[in-house]
Write a structure and sequence with these properties.
Layout: H1 7-24, H2 30-37, H3 41-47, H4 51-71, H5 80-97, H6 99-109, H7 116-125, H8 127-137, H9 146-167, H10 172-186
Helix pairs in contact: 1-2, 1-6, 2-3, 4-6, 4-7, 5-8, 5-9, 9-10
């Protein structure tokens, strides 16, 4: 009878992959990933049949964590601007708390190794979060630009803000608010 797979080893492999993809890109070798996880390369392939499978599962795991953060309940009695500011703060908080995952996700998003299936799975998972942000921007932003503001500006501006906060943590509150204000005012119709 085959031994059951250890969730601890699987998570160690995902953590090691995130660390190495963040620092070396998707070209990080499976040997380095296995070594960083404290297992043999053969063990890596027991959990992930191919390197691409490992990278795709890492992509989905990071996107799942980010999406769960974004979908935590919000107060119902706040304005669209206040709700969007809460979304912004959760995005910034997640990025600051998960620096390695954020860097790995950036590498994975531009990689040709992440399949359309994985990307579609994540898009489907994020549908509710996106709908909420679209609702916050409805009536504020030009309808034909809302997708662009969400897909490009929101995340890129959050990334810039996270980098600035990391460089100047003593100015965290000011940078965080300035980033949100720039997004809100810049997206006004």
């Amino acid at each position: 009878m085959a031994r059951p797979l250890s969730e601890e080893k699987r998570q160690a492999l995902l953590d090691a992959a995130a660390e190495l993809v963040a620092s070396l890109g998707t070209g990080a070798s499976t040997a380095k990933i296995a070594r960083a996880a404290g297992v043999s390369e053969g063990t890596l392939f027991t959990y992930f049949p191919t390197k691409d499978d490992l990278l795709n599962q890492l992509f989905v795991a990071i996107e799942t964590d980010l999406t769960e953060t974004m979908l935590a309940p919000y107060p119902a009695d706040v304005s669209d601007r206040e709700r969007l500011c809460m979304v912004w703060n959760r995005l910034i908080d997640w990025g600051l708390a998960h620096a390695t995952a954020r860097k790995a996700l950036r590498q994975l998003k531009v990689s040709g190794r992440v399949t359309a299936e994985s990307r579609n799975r994540c898009h489907a998972m994020q549908r509710d979060a996106r709908t909420m942000v679209e609702a916050c921007l409805a009536g504020h932003a030009a309808p034909d630009r809302i997708g662009f503001y969400i897909d490009t500006i929101l995340f890129d501006l959050a990334d810039i803000s996270i980098n600035a906060i990391t460089a100047r943590p003593e100015e965290s509150a000011t940078i965080r608010q300035a980033g949100f204000d720039l997004f809100w005012k810049g997206s006004a119709a």
